[in-house]
Amino acid sequence: MEAVAKGTDALALDAERDTFPKLVRLNARRFGSKVAIREKDLGIWRAYTWAQYFEEARLIALGLASLGFARGDRVAIVGDNRPRLYWAVAAVQALGGVPVPIYQDSVEKEMEYIVDHAEARFAVVEDQEQVDKLLGVRARCRRLQHVLYDDPRGMRAYREPGLASLSELRELGKKFEVSHPTYFDDEVGRGTADDIAIICYTSGTTGTPKGAMLSHRNLIATARNAAQVEGLREDEEVLSYLPMAWVGDHIFSYAQAIVVGFAINCPESAETVLADLKEIAPTYFFGPPRIWESVLTGVMVRVEDAARPKRAIVHFFLRLAQDIERRRLGRQPISLRQRLLYPLGSFLVYGPLKDNLGLSRVRRAYTAGEAIGPEIFLFFRGLGVNVKQLYGMTEASVFVTIQRDGDVRLDTVGTPITGVEIRISNEGEVLFRSPGVFQGYAKNPEATRQTLEGGWIRSGDAGFLDADGHLKIIDRAKDVSRLADGTMFAPKFLENKLKFSPYVREAVCIGQGRPCVTALLNIDLIAVGSWAERRNIAYTSYADLAQKPEVYELIHREVERVNRSLAEDAVLHATQVRRFLILHKELDPDDEEITRTRKVRRGFIAQKYAPLIEALYSGRDHVQVEAKVTYEDGRTGTMRADVKIRDVDLVAAQGGR
Fold this sequence. Notes:
GMP Synthetase, Chain A, domain 3; 3 domains; Rossmann fold
């Protein structure tokens, strides 16, 4: 029997508003003097209006045309969130081309694969670092002819053919327009809703990345439907800090910003995101679980550094807020004492903390990408931050379900947005169709057939619909398995519980076909380092700190906390962590252990760390390891360590189960 849930019908698109360049042009006419995008550079925020947004995109497009740009050309976009890179996306689309954003921290080999696979003729990049990588790639990707850069610092001595700045390209555009005065408008007019708007490459959790092709119709209809459901307004402020290569940033910072007409804000650098967040105080904020985890870790580190009386007050009111929110979400009564204490907590703790984090003006905030730990969710909602879960995929133009205001639940990802229909297969896999369903994987018909069938997407996620139509995601379908005794094993669920600890950055749980659950853990260097310094524990590196006996005691207590929580779960109480070790190095995308979006590559880790995994099940209390590591410049090295293994006591299931 299949369960089905469906949103209402999608909105139609008219020919004057069916591509993003047409919408940008319309925004320039409707509210040309309104701020569309800000950028912080050298400590100063600079604003650009919608009229400037359109004009800059137009000149970049004309400059590309002067270089022989043809409809259908693919353009690699690489760099941090910068106005000119967003304008370049619009410029490429205006000429009927397809932008292909690439993660800016990709090593040259990863970049080469996408540039070659996408057959990119042009690349628009941020700075010298990306230019160097693309010039190296160009030697092996013969189709790549032009590399255009935004930031001229360090570029004075470069003389390679096909290399130019965006400022130079802009001037070429002005000259081209003199002899081709109607070229830009003619090309924009040729665009249709069903043209490919962007190719977003997946993170490659289980293999090489796949290029998901999304049309203007996919993105505009989905962005508009989600905006209507959530009541987005033209006065929203968004911090655009997530990688441009990630489809989520493309939806929030590009598609929805253009469809609704709100402003986005580009931080100065990755290191200044939290400070810039405080300055902007966004009204609309998205953060994957790792961002919320990072913010929470920073908060708890500062709390632990406070004097004992202040620390006690903060902990008391944080516990109060989370208990109230848990009751509210569970539709349980809130006591009079709690109602009276909460305003005091808001005055002393919640309000100042939200101000300090830059979350005081947030009207709606989302998390998605993977499940968020319930404790993290409760923490922020307890502060009064309207954070909600949504469920989406690159192949769906992001939005599939969302939690509505007033109908937020701790254990679901909400109900379908407008135009989305969800079905649960007999095998328990989540299937869906919607206006956002992608056009297929570029040059990969076999993968397309495996994912897209009759308009329905096979999500690869195991889940079910509850009686109220809320979707519950258990785990990746391929990752849900059984222990040796038949107990269901959902590794991501356990890993999220472990990562709620401010001291645990990454967790990989092992258990399929095994007698018990074990875990490979990464400590959070900042949080544990601060903890160690307060206790005068000296260390020289991550590897040294990770193997300190005191650190093992600290992490042992965190694993015990998770086991106590699992003991209360009727289904998963038998999947408590029995043994764990702290890895001698941080899991790193450069070492192919996690993706650029920090998703665990389980198959690779199972192979690479097989000796450690076998040691966890052998009864040994330590294991010698030798590991290859990759540095940022591509060099490799070898590190050796003696990794300790700890046993953890199991907690009796509640109620004697």
